[in-house]
Design the sequence.
């Protein structure tokens, strides 16, 4: 039993490794890209729409509603980033029902990369919304002495974001493997269903936390008060 897909190596040439994390990450990205292209190539505004477009509109509508609810802002600027993160994590976890597949979100390198994306996106959105001076000035509120503590807070929440997702996905894989060895018939099915539900919840939580951090950075000091 491999705890992380990083340890499953498909091909190696010297120091270059092609492990399960990389392969399945590419697979998830290719699958999302293909499905997006198939669904959006024949978009229509007529009353009769395809099932794919209907599902797409539901996902987009729900994502916009969640962003608006969390940020109290128009969701347009954040929809692409938050929606992509949610879909990537959700699809990565849902594909766990496929035999031989290892969710890339079970690798700390993947979850760290996603958390770093959020870490970079927060100041980008914050500066775009408030300007450089106002955004950086927020790190010295209510007093300049808080600057190092606010910086540490930014870094620590990024680390927590990565470890939270990694820990939940990894623990589900380990527990499923243990139960499979003890009771190989009935309980693994229940664990698989529970794992899919947990995977969707984790995708939702990660996306919501990302939006919370971005919303905090894009609100002016007066709005926060």
Sequence:
């Amino acid at each position: 039993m491999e705890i992380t897909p990083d340890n499953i190596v498909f091909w190696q040439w010297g120091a270059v490794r092609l492990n399960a994390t990389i392969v399945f990450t590419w697979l998830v990205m290719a699958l999302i890209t293909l499905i997006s292209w198939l669904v959006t190539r024949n978009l229509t505004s007529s009353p009769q729409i395809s099932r794919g477009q209907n599902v797409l509109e539901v996902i987009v509508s729900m994502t916009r509603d969640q962003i608006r609810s969390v940020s109290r802002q128009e969701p347009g600027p954040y929809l692409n980033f938050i929606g992509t993160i949610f879909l990537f994590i959700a699809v990565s976890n849902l594909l766990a029902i496929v035999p031989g597949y290892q969710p890339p979100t079970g690798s700390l390198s993947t979850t760290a990369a996603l958390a770093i994306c959020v870490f970079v996106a927060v100041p980008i959105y914050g500066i775009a919304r408030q300007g450089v001076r106002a955004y950086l000035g927020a790190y010295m509120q209510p007093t300049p002495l808080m600057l190092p503590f606010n910086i540490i807070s930014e870094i620590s929440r990024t680390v927590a974001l990565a470890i939270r997702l990694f820990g939940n996905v990894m623990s589900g894989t380990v527990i499923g493997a243990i139960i499979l060895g003890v009771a190989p018939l009935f309980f693994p099915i229940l664990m698989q269903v529970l794992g899919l539900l947990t995977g969707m919840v984790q995708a939702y939580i990660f996306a919501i936390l990302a939006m919370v951090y971005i919303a905090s950075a894009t609100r002016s000091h007066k709005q926060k008060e």
